[in-house]
Specification:
mainly alpha; two-stranded parallel sheet; 14 helices
Length: 293
Amino acid sequence: MLLAILFTQIAFLGHDSAHRQIFVSGKWNDWVSIVLGDLLVGMSYGWWQHKHTRHHANPNKLGADPDIDLPVIVVTPGRTPPRSRTLRWLRAHQGVFFFPILLLEGVSLHASGVRRVLARGELKRRWVEILFLLIRLTGFPMLVFIVLSPGIAFVFLAVQLGVFGFYMGASFAPNHKGMPVVPRDVSLDFLRRQVMMSRNIRGTRVLDTAMGGLNYQIEHHLFPSMPRPHLRKAAPIIAEYCRTHDVPYLQTGLFASYAIVVRYINRVGLGERDVFTCPLIEQRNHFTMPAAS
């Protein structure tokens, strides 16, 4: 379990580096991200960067944000219900299964990275990533089986992978799940596009460390390259600016955010199309939003 926490914290550092928060040099940030992500954690930096860049450009926008197109959990209203009665029941109660499913997130992250480095298409430093992932995803389990008996080694790896996936998923889930989903035909200015689709989590500096700074999701989306320690200082300034310009700025507690996420996912699973009154549509009815640059 401690190793899973360590791997997650290393992944957070890789996230910081990928956003150019650590070094001035882009190359240094890239290489640190590859070492931390591929070699130490077993996640492809190239896969993460490709996916995460699209998410930052259009958070929660249909057809643009890959983070709302999930293979198991449905998080966007209006999806066609499955024909099977069992699958319909599972979807209607998907919020209950959301957190248990996060135990498989570690497997998904490893598998997605491997698929990316082996797939066709442009990928910088492909062979470096393949080598690092091979070392991490084969070498680490081999070391565990050398040190421990087979049965204990299997349990050790299962717990480590499950806790790692749960920790990662539980850190990212409060950021955007349950926030407005942007229709394909709606264009937003940069401020509203980033603030209205994000949710901050209140807490102490301990929570800041535990969540890798992701609890300041609004500030992170507005200033992705801002070093993590400065996000707490920027938060009250940005909150005041949003209030002045009548832009909704949402901040809640950690467990309250989880309740919002589960409730939202359940309502989507039940087939509701209007799971909340979307502030985007409300504001669009009062003024014309500037086109996104």
